[in-house]
Amino acid sequence: MQHVKVPQDRIGVLIGEGGETMREIEDRAEVRLDIDSESGSVAIDSVGDPVAGLVAPDIVRAIGRGFTPEVALSLLEHDLRRFELVDLASETRNKNDLQRQKGRLIGENGRTRELMEDLSGAEVVIKGTTLGVIGQPEEVEAVRRATGMILDGAPHGAVYSFLERKHNEIHGAPDLSTPTGNAEEPR
Question: Under the GO molecular function aspect, what terms does this record hold (predicted)?
Fold first, then answer.
């Protein structure tokens, strides 16, 4: 049996309307969840496939860190798909620095976080003092490195260039060798 602590404001999401989300996690991960909605403590007991049961704590943690139940449950869809947390508080000097760095990671109107998702292919959530990532190992690593670059003070443009290169490595570059018809032919 494993225990996971979930923030109070995410207990309702974990349980779902009429217990729907909780039942889906139990069915798909082959576990039993015992949720203490007062303390936020969740006991996870594997009752079926032990491999699926090993993923259940990450599913519960991911929902607790702000991911939707659908995205958290995607951890069961592929063996290599994984969930990672970056502790932003340990990477910053104080509360003001934490707020500033979170602002840099989120970007204006959420643009930086969105670009991290679009270019890496991973799902990214920033909540409290953590940045959570769900994706394939190379996608998670790209977000982790981009996050490190931003926390180290790299300009956003450099981070976006890095993410574009990683996108091309992971997902394949667009074929730029075929003419588009816009360029003039040499004479």
Answer: RNA binding
